């Protein structure tokens, strides 16, 4: 590979790693570790910690994807989209001024919005595949997370075998869904930068070598 090609690949790799950083991709290993410990021990403590960590990653990743979308100069977002990407809402004060507040977005809506806006920032149309089993399992796991966070009864703190299995399915589904979208956006970036199919193949090989360091 010549120096120009090497430099171009290094720039693209830096961009990919920047995306991973804002998307809290490095935190995914903690979620995996929590899953392994919960599966190995079967203890309620580890199961609760795993589900909490999983949804903490989801919330952090959605925020990161929205920040990435806001950084894009390739797309025009509406005022409403920009406000929600910044997680802000606005109201009028008694004096007639404008007050800025934190937008409270439900988790299910936030996931769909964050993925769609991140894709839009790369010039892609995207809708989360919510008809798949993984999405149904994620919604069930969200209800478990909610009762763990706001328990009213002793039983609210229990994570059953079925609850844990649903969380694992949701975990695998969201991981695969995120990776698919991530690779599509990388392909779009490479295409927009004029890379040929052969250049794209070489860049993927370059990334694999780096990841194997």
Descriptive account of the structure:
With 213 residues, the protein is mostly helical. It has 8 helices and 2 strands; from the N terminus they run ααααββαααα. It has helices spanning 3-22, 28-41, 44-71, 79-85, 107-121, 133-149, 161-192, 197-211; strands at 88-92, 98-102. Strand 1 and strand 2 (98-102) form a beta hairpin.
What does this entry show, briefly?
The chain is 69% helix and 5% strand. With 213 residues, it is mainly alpha-helical. The mean pLDDT is 86.
Q: Which spans have pLDDT < 50 for at least 5 consecutive residues?
A: none
Which H/E pattern describes the elements?
Answer: HHHHEEHHHH
- Content of β-strand: under 5%
Report the total helices. Answer: 8
The geometry reads as flat
Q: Termini separation (Å)?
A: 19 Å
The level of helicity is 55-70%
Q: Which strand order do you get reading across the main beta sheet?
A: 1-2
Radius of gyration (CA) equals 20 Å
């Amino acid at each position: 590979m010549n120096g120009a090609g090497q430099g171009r690949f290094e720039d693209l790799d830096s961009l990919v790693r920047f995306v991973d950083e804002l998307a809290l991709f490095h935190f995914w290993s903690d979620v995996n570790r929590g899953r392994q410990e919960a599966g190995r021990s079967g203890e309620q403590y580890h199961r609760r910690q795993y589900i909490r960590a999983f949804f903490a990653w989801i919330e952090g990743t959605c925020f990161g994807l929205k920040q990435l979308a806001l950084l894009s100069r390739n797309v025009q977002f509406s005022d409403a989209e920009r406000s929600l990407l910044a997680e802000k809402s606005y109201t009028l004060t008694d004096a007639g001024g404008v007050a800025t507040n934190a937008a409270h977005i439900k988790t299910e809506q936030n996931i769909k919005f964050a993925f769609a806006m991140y894709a839009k920032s790369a010039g892609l149309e995207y809708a989360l595949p919510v008809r798949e089993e993984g999405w149904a399992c994620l919604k069930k796991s969200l209800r478990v997370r909610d009762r763990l966070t706001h328990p009213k009864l002793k039983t609210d703190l229990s994570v059953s075998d079925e609850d844990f299995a649903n969380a694992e399915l949701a975990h695998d589904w969201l991981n695969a869904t995120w990776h698919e979208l991530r690779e599509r956006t990388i392909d779009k970036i490479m295409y927009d930068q004029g890379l040929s199919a052969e250049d794209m193949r070489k860049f993927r090989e370059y990334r694999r070598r780096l990841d194997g360091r």
